[in-house]
């Protein structure tokens, strides 16, 4: 009786008023904090390197891309029955268990490559800091990568609660410092991007379409917070009952508006303080925009502050994505062993997962592949498949989502999702 009472009271209260509860504010900030991470540190490079016109178009597309896609996923989660506990349950309910397992695999493939991206990023950030700010010779890359990743794994070994607490403590100071740095760069703004061609490389055959084609997956990656959408939707359904979809849409709108304004201000501030040639150099060096700013400007505050922010952001993002990647890997291994009649212990699974993550992260960090290349060809396109295309397909096929059919925003989400996914083919052919 107590449980039933606790579940129905908030929904009744919410259904009879238009108040903004404390829990709504917590979720609004939580969505914002989840999206604003290390991915933002690579967005200015990709957004500005194409010239002024692609940058302006991306600024216009940022809010509708982020809002309509995440609203679609939220609606998809809410379309499940009351027995559904997360997005995997909803997928299984609408499309069957086999598809549910496939979606679980895709989630792992969306998160795991990003973990590898951050393994490379944190190694390059520390290597750049040792070389440029400390004026010392960095240790061999394989050794540096191993020390850093073992250190991160040591934090992970303290347990999920410690990781989540550390991440939550880092989110908002990081955002505050990011905005402060954007303001601090204002005196360094130049007209270099206005003097350059509207589309960079136009004289070499680059078109506006080709520049935007590769920029869209990075936009998808930078603003993505799909892993938290399932928990968000279920929490609001418990609180608001039938009114959950309207309240979720309102919370998403406010959160995404804050997100786009602060991130794009940071992007424009970085781009205006550098030239397109400098941004191309940052991409070639395979470092975040903050590490490049620290090396570029003869300013002790930027030189010290920027690498520290980058290190904190990448650490936070690595820890968060490790949780998702390890859960996905453990689930996949467990399912594979159970199909063969074996039931592994939780301890053995955890050790196998930790070993796999350590070895692969260290190997990729040592090899140092292009970070933006990995985002363009792996992270962004797979996220787009789950975040953009799956909910839109469900709207067209699932009776419970029929009421959302026939609106222009659906076609926009379809288009952006297909563009992001097709970037894999474009990149390989290019």
From TrEMBL:
Gene Ontology CC terms: plasma membrane
Coarse class of the protein's main subcellular location: membrane
The keyword Cell membrane appears for this protein: yes
InterPro entries named among the record's database cross-references: Amino_acid_transport_2, Hydroxy_aa_transpt
Keywords: Amino-acid transport, Cell inner membrane, Cell membrane, Membrane, Symport, Transmembrane, Transmembrane helix, Transport
Cell compartments where the protein resides: Cell inner membrane
Catalytically driven reaction(s): L-serine(in) + H(+)(in) = L-serine(out) + H(+)(out)
Molecular function via GO: amino acid transmembrane transporter activity; symporter activity
Keyword Cell membrane: yes
Lineage top rank: taxon: Bacteria
TM segment ranges: 26-45, 51-68, 102-122, 142-158, 170-189, 209-229, 250-274, 301-325, 346-365, 371-390, 411-429
Membrane topology: Multi-pass membrane protein
NCBIfam families linked: stp
PANTHER family from the UniProt entry: SERINE TRANSPORTER, SERINE TRANSPORTER SDAC
This protein's name: Serine transporter
Organism from which the protein derives: Biostraticola tofi
């Amino acid at each position: 009786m107590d449980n039933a009472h606790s579940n129905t009271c908030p929904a009744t209260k919410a259904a009879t008023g238009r108040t903004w509860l404390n829990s709504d504010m917590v979720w609004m900030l939580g969505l914002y904090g989840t999206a604003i991470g290390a991915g933002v540190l690579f967005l200015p490079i990709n957004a500005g390197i194409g010239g002024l016109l692609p940058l302006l178009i991306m600024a216009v597309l940022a809010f509708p891309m982020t809002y309509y896609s995440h609203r679609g996923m939220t609606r998809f989660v809410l379309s499940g029955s009351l027995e559904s506990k997360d997005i995997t349950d909803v997928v299984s309910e609408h499309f069957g268990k086999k598809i549910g397992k496939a979606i679980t695999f895709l989630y792992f493939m969306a998160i795991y490559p990003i973990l590898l991206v951050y393994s490379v990023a944190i190694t390059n950030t520390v290597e750049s800091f040792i070389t440029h700010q400390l004026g010392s010779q960095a240790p061999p890359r394989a050794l540096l990568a191993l020390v850093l990743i073992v250190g991160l794994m040591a934090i992970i070994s303290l347990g999920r609660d410690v990781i989540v607490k550390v991440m939550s403590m880092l989110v908002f100071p990081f955002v505050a410092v990011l905005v402060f740095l954007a303001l601090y760069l204002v005196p360094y703004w130049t007209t270099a991007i206005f003097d350059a061609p509207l589309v960079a490389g136009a004289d070499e055959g680059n078109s506006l379409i080709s520049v935007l084609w590769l920029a869209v997956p990075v936009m998808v990656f930078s603003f993505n917070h799909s892993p938290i959408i399932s928990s968000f939707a279920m929490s609001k359904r418990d609180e608001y009952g039938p009114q959950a979809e309207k309240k979720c849409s309102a919370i998403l709108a406010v959160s995404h508006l804050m997100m786009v304004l602060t991130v794009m201000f940071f992007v424009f501030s970085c781009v205006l303080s550098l030239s397109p040639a400098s941004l191309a150099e940052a991409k070639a060096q395979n470092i975040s925009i903050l590490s490049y700013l620290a090396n570029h400007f003869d300013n002790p505050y930027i030189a010290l502050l920027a690498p520290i922010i980058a290190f904190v952001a990448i650490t936070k993002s690595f820890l968060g994505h490790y949780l998702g990647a390890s859960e996905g890997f453990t689930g996949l291994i467990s399912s594979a062993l159970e199909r063969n009649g074996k039931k592994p212990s939780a301890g053995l699974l955890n050790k196998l997962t930790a070993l796999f993550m350590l070895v692969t992260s260290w190997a990729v960090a040592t090899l140092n592949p292009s970070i933006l290349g990995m985002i363009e060809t792996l992270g962004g396109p797979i996220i787009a498949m789950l975040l953009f295309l799956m909910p839109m397909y469900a709207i067209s096929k699932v009776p419970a989502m029929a009421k959302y059919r026939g609106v222009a925003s659906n076609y926009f989400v379809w288009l952006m999702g297909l563009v992001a996914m097709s970037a894999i083919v474009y990149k390989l052919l290019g």
